Structure to design on (505 residues):
C-alpha cells in the first residue's frame, strides 16, 4: 500500500485556499473543461452529527450542589452531541476560609467525566436565593452566604435583602474589599483551570442573583456601570486562555440605553462573549414572542463571528409547568401563543447564533420527552457542513487542484481550523491508496447560510494513472476526532472518508 504523507519524501503540500461568500446559496464558478459534480443528492439533513466544539451541555450542578445530577449514566452517554458539563456553584463552597481552597466539588466531576471526552464550563456565583446547604454552604445567625462569610468579616460592605426572599447576604459589587478577595480567588482558580484544554468557558458570575447580572430577586438595585466593569476586569486580568462569557442581563438589566451601549462596547472590545439565560421564561414568552423570547439579539450579532455564544433554557420543569412545552418533542401548539415550545427553542437558537445549547434540567427527562428534537437542535447549533459541489481544476502529472463548494447550514461558524484529509484509491486496486492532508481546510470562514468555494492544490511526487476514487474528511487535530459532514452514511467508508468523485489523471 502506498501513502502520500506531509513529508518532503512523499508529498509537497501547496495550499491555495480562498473563500468566496455567495449569498442565498448561489454558486459562483469559472468555466472549465472539467465538469462540476453536484453533491446535494448525497445529503442527509436528519442524521445527528456529533462534532467537536459545539452541541449540548448539561448543568451537572446548578446554583449549588443539589440539582441535576446525572441519574442514568448509560442513557447520558447515549445523549447525542453532549459536549460539556456546566458547573454553577457558589464561591463559598470553594474557599470556605480565606486562602484555603476546596476544589473537590469540581474535581470529582472532572476526574469522572473529562476522561470520557466531556468538557467543563464554569460559573462561580456570589449571590444565591436558595437555602443552605444546597445553594450555599451555611447560614450565620440566620443569614446565608454564597460569598464566603469571611469576606464580610474582612470589612466588605453589603446588605441582607430579606424583603424579596430568604435572607442571603448580597455584597456591594464594587466594594474594594470584595473586589480584592474576589480577584484573589479567581487568581487561584485560573492558576488551577485556565490552561486546561477541556475548559470551554467561564462566566462572569460575581454580580447578581445566581450570577446572572440582575438583582430582581434580591435588592432590585441595578449594578452600576462602574461595578460591572470592575468585575469584568477581574476576569480579564486572570483568564488568559479561557473564553469569558457574560449574561445579557449583566449588560442591559434596568439600565439606560447609553449605559447599555457603553457596557456592550466594553465587553465586545475585550473579547467577552454572551449567553442568554431567559429563553422560554414565561415573562419573555409573553413580552418578546416576536423575537422568540430573546430580548437583545443584537448583542449576539456583535460577537458570534469571533466567539461562540451560549443558549440556556429556562429550567425545563418550569417551562412545562408554565404550559410552554406541550407534546412529544415540544411540537404541540401553545394555545395562548399560537406557536409551539419547539418553535421558540429553535428560533431563539437562530437569533442567538448559539454554538452551545442547554435544556437546563435532568438529561433523562429531557431526552425521553424530546428524542427527535434533541438531534435536530444538535445539528442546528454551531456549524453544520455540507459539500454542495466539487470540481477538478487540474489533474495533471504533478498537480491535483480541486474546488469544493461548502455550505454551512448551522447558525454559527466554527472557531477552530479543521484539517482537510483526502484519499485517492485506485479503482479495482484498493491496496493502492494515496493519502494527503491539509492543516487548514479554510472552514473558519464558512459563515452560516453562505456557499463558500474553497480551492485546494496538492503536488504529487509521481505521475498517477487512473481512475481513482477521491474521498475526503474533515478532522480536528486537537480532539483527535473527525468532523462529520452532512452526507448519508452510505457514502462514508470505514475510515471516515466520504466519497466525492472518480478522478482520472
Amino acid at each position: 500500500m502506498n501513502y502520500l504523507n506531509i513529508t518532503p519524501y512523499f508529498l509537497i503540500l501547496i495550499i491555495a485556499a480562498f473563500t468566496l461568500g455567495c449569498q442565498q446559496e448561489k454558486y459562483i464558478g469559472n468555466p472549465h473543461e472539467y465538469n462540476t459534480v453536484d453533491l446535494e443528492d448525497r445529503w442527509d439533513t436528519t442524521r445527528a452529527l456529533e462534532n467537536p466544539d459545539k452541541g449540548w451541555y448539561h448543568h451537572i450542578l446548578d446554583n449549588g450542589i443539589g440539582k441535576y445530577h446525572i441519574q442514568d449514566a448509560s442513557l447520558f452517554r447515549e445523549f447525542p452531541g453532549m459536549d460539556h458539563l456546566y458547573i454553577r456553584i457558589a464561591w463559598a463552597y470553594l474557599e470556605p476560609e480565606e486562602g484555603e481552597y476546596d476544589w473537590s466539588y469540581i474535581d470529582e466531576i472532572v476526574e469522572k467525566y473529562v476522561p470520557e471526552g466531556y468538557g467543563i464550563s464554569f460559573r462561580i456565583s456570589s449571590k444565591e436565593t436558595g437555602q443552605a446547604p444546597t445553594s450555599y454552604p451555611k447560614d450565620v445567625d440566620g443569614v446565608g452566604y454564597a460569598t464566603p462569610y469571611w469576606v464580610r468579616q474582612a470589612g466588605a460592605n453589603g446588605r441582607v435583602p430579606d424583603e424579596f426572599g430568604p435572607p442571603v447576604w448580597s455584597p456591594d459589587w464594587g466594594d474594594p474589599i470584595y473586589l480584592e478577595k474576589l480577584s484573589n480567588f479567581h487568581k487561584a482558580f485560573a492558576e488551577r483551570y485556565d490552561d486546561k484544554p477541556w475548559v470551554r468557558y467561564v462566566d462572569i458570575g460575581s454580580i447578581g442573583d445566581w450570577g446572572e447580572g440582575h438583582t430582581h430577586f434580591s435588592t432590585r438595585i441595578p449594578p452600576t456601570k462602574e461595578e460591572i466593569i470592575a468585575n469584568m476586569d477581574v476576569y480579564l486580568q486572570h483568564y488568559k486562555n479561557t473564553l469569558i462569557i457574560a449574561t445579557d442581563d449583566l449588560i442591559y438589566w434596568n439600565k439606560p440605553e447609553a449605559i447599555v451601549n457603553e457596557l456592550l462596547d466594553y465587553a465586545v472590545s475585550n473579547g467577552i462573549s454572551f449567553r442568554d439565560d431567559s429563553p422560554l421564561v414565561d415573562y419573555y414568552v409573553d413580552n418578546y414572542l416576536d423575537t422568540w423570547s430573546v430580548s437583545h439579539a443584537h448583542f449576539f450579532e456583535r460577537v458570534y463571528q469571533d466567539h461562540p455564544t451560549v443558549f440556556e433554557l429556562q429550567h425545563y420543569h418550569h417551562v412545562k409547568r408554565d404550559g410552554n412545552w406541550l407534546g412529544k418533542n415540544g411540537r404541540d401548539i401553545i394555545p395562548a401563543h399560537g406557536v409551539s415550545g419547539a418553535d421558540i427553542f429553535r428560533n431563539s437558537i437562530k437569533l442567538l447564533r448559539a454554538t452551545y445549547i442547554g435544556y437546563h434540567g435532568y438529561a433523562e427527562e429531557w431526552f425521553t420527552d424530546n428524542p427527535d428534537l434533541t438531534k435536530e437542535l444538535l445539528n442546528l447549533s454551531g456549524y453544520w457542513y455540507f459539500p454542495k459541489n466539487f470540481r477538478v481544476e487540474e489533474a495533471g502529472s504533478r498537480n491535483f487542484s480541486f474546488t469544493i463548494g461548502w455550505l454551512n447550514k448551522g447558525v454559527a461558524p466554527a472557531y477552530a481550523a479543521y484539517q482537510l484529509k483526502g484519499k485517492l484509491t485506485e479503482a479495482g486496486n484498493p491496496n493502492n491508496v494515496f493519502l494527503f492532508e491539509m492543516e487548514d481546510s479554510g472552514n473558519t470562514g464558512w459563515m452560516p447560510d453562505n456557499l463558500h468555494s474553497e480551492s485546494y492544490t496538492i503536488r504529487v511526487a509521481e505521475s498517477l494513472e487512473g481512475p481513482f476514487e477521491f474521498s475526503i474528511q474533515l478532522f480536528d487535530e486537537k480532539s483527535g476526532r473527525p468532523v462529520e459532514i452532512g452526507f448519508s452514511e452510505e457514502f462514508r467508508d470505514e475510515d471516515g472518508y466520504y466519497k466525492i468523485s472518480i478522478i482520472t489523471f
Q: What stands out?
A: The longest helix spans residues 176-193. The chain is about 25% helix and 25% strand.
